[in-house]
Amino acid sequence: MAKSTRTVLSSRLVSTAVAAALMGSGAHAVAQENDPIKVGILHSLSGTMAISESTLKDTVEMLIEQQNEAGGLLGRDLEAVVVDPASNWPLFAERARELLEQEEVDVIFGNWTSVSRKAVLPVVEELNGLLFYPVQYEGEESSENVFYTGAAPNQQAIPAVEYLINDVGIERFALVGTDYVYPRTTNRILEAFLKDEHGVADEDIMVNYTPFGHSDWQNIVSEIRRFGEAGKPTAVVSTINGDANVPFYRELANQGIDAADIPVIAFSVGEQELSGIDTGPLVGHLAAWNYFMSVDTDENYDFIDAWIDWTGDEEAVTNDPMEAHYIGFNMWAEAVRKAGTTDVDAIKEAIIGVTVPNLSGGYAAMMPNHHITKPVLIGEVQDNGQFDIVWQTPSTVAGDAWSDYLPGSRDLIADWRKPMACGNFNVVNGSCGGSTAAEEAEAALAE
Amino acid sequence: MRRFLFWALLCLLAGFLPSAAAQTAAPGSDPGAALLETLDVDSYRDKGEAITAIVQSDDERAREWLQALLDGRLQRADDGRFVVVLDNAGRNWPVEDALTGEALGEMSRRELDRIGINNALRNQLRSAIAVVDLISPDVERRRSSADRLLGEVDEALAETLVPVIEEAEDDYVRRRLGQALAIYQAENGEMAGVEALSGSLHPRARVALNRAASGDDPVVADAARAALASVEQNLKLNRGVETLYFGLSLGSVLVLAAIGLAITFGVMGVINMAHGELMMLGAYTTWMMQQLLPGQPGLALVLSIPAGFLVAALVGIAIERGVIQFLKGRPLETLLATFGISLILQQLVRTVISPLNRTVITPEWMSGSLVINDALSLTLNRLYVMGFALFVFAALMLVMRRTRLGLEVRAVTQNRAMARAMGIRATRVDILTFALGSGVAGLAGVALSQLTNVGPNLGQNYIIDSFMVVVFGGVGNLWGTLVAGLSLGVINQVLEPWAGAVLAKIIVLVFIILFIQKRPRGLFPQKGRAAEG
Questions:
Q1: For residues B309 and B469, is the Cβ–Cβ distance under 8 A?
Q2: Coil, helix or strand for A301?
Q3: Are strands A234-239 and A264-266 parallel, antiparallel or unpaired?
Q4: Which position among A194, B21, B190, B401 has the lowest Cβ density within 10 Å, counted as fewest Cβ atoms?
């Protein structure tokens, strides 16, 4: 903080006549009163991930403007500091450092891919920053400096598969994903869950990985078709990422695979991804999220109206990570109000237990493991590119940082309240520091 | 006879007696209104029961309602009337009254509430419509109804099917319904069904046989296993043909992407890293054309072929004049400069149009697949792309071999000084060649818009593959590009089922590296003095 005070003084106050008088403890208060609170936005605006991340940057900017119109926070205005990490993972770390060291932002909203979060993680921990991460991810992580406002696997993948088993009667699963950490970990959890909890046989699970941006799905779709011919109701659980989805769904439609025969449930396909596809042939395929644009609540309609006004585009869509930022931003604002300061350590303490409304008519609470409570919704694709909600959990589900279905991981809990203050507390040996089984599993995955 | 069957089917399905069926309601208290009313509930289970009730009612409008419900066109207006939407494009939709069929003009989409359905209901509706359609006067409807009923027959329907099969005038319908009945029988462990299904390649038939094979009766189970084994050979053959088709289709995409590069890189020797972005511009031209001609995606696609060529060719000329001509003979600098251009073009599209993908509609005649037999069907969009690739290749060959431009291009690339001495304007030839190669990249983009995303990253996904094909085929040789593209496609698709998509790509790359070690000039090396330069 001392360093920040010095910089502020040198840039803003030294030239004024009062500079000398304010040297000392009083300077701090004056700087806080006059200076805007800086909110860092770390989303790619160019490169491959711009397709998903650029709207999140706009979302945070909109939220900041709304907050300023409502009088700011602690009597200070909010100011957005936008940087472009250009879909380049090492650049994410550099930009995060720039935000924390040079811009001295009070909080960062950012990242989409898990690999970019992993790149930023050591930086925010070293410089003691705050990062709000808005995307559904594979879990197996809890950092003191990161707040995970997207879904953990138990808030998306597990309920979705349970819906398929209990409500649709599926007995055979094709786990299809892009080859990187999120699908691999999610599928590992799902495989363990299906086998241990539901007794699904090995031959009834098919796992397939494809490279990023895969565009030739002929063989895989035909394999799925044959996989579905075994006489048991079959579904595809898709963790296919980004651009590869359009050719995948096109190939499904062309090979005549209908949602009524083999439904596909996706964890990465939302309203925004559908806006690039002719959804006619996809009607009935499923997606699991914690928010859909079609949610019928006043909060949601207000949010959509504000978003359409902000973008000036009548056709603009909202999606799940946008809601996550909405929740995360409001939680942070609430914590700032509660703590009466933007100091990182004070916020970390104040935010646990903070409850704010979500957009689906309920409330989201920040848990001690830095994950939040969310309802789980299942939607069917409609021909207008929206989802029709066909199922939802009766109440909200708390995010679980460490999966209960993986060896090693199930022994771990995260609780950042004092005195435990640990992200990977091992309940078996009663110490903070993870478990060797979890590390071995992680290493096996990395190979 | 038909009329009788209609009632018989409906009543049997419903377990109703014909006595209730014959009455017509008095005008004013339309029973249809009450039926539709039961559909407008939240619970999907209640909706399912309402659909059953509609099927059981003898209402003549039932099929129309079911179809409208299936298509999401059955909606409720704010005034409580049920309407059928005739066309749901735009903000205001023409509608008609669901009960009277009277046209009600246009209504705003805000006034209308759609009656939603889910997958289970969609299935139920399709089967219900298929049963009604079995006795439709339209033979196409009867055929699709028979197709639909494979694997959907239940006890009540099985009994009614027997006379329908005997009565069927159309061979196809008779055969299909026979199979549908046999599938039902086989699933219930009846020998007759298993025997009838022997030799059938249809996936539903194999599902039924698989179930019969794990049934209680050992004789039937053995017969089912034998029936499954008897088609094994045939299935393998079909799978082989399918894999070959997949390979050729992937190959033709590679050829399309690479053939423009075969001209700019292969013939002119310019390493153009912005080649992928020229394809992207072709794809965006298709999107633009579809925006200009709403409602006519097919026509727009056809017009995009010349338009995509022109746009990409013009941008190509700009690149050649603006950058490449100053870097002649300096391949490393050309590579870096064109890589810069590729980034600029990508970001330009992101900023000017949008970072999001654009929707390019596949015209009706290009979607779906061409059914060869029950186990083999070829997807139409890829068939068209294959044909288009061959067409582009042939046209390019013709230009290079039979026109004055082709002659001049070959002359300039083989010996620039000599060609100029003969009076050929080398600069003009450079421009035209680069424009031709770029235009062909634009054509590839038009074709790719039908297979993959139209977004700023489109080009990046294909640039590496394109260079790979050109180098593997032999720089400067169009035939080499064709053969290399198709064979790489086939190798990739043959490897994919057992190696996985990621490993298959790696194996292909390693193979090419090893191949280039052995034959540095590719499959079809250029011969003669031209090759020295």
A1: no
A2: helix
A3: parallel
A4: B401
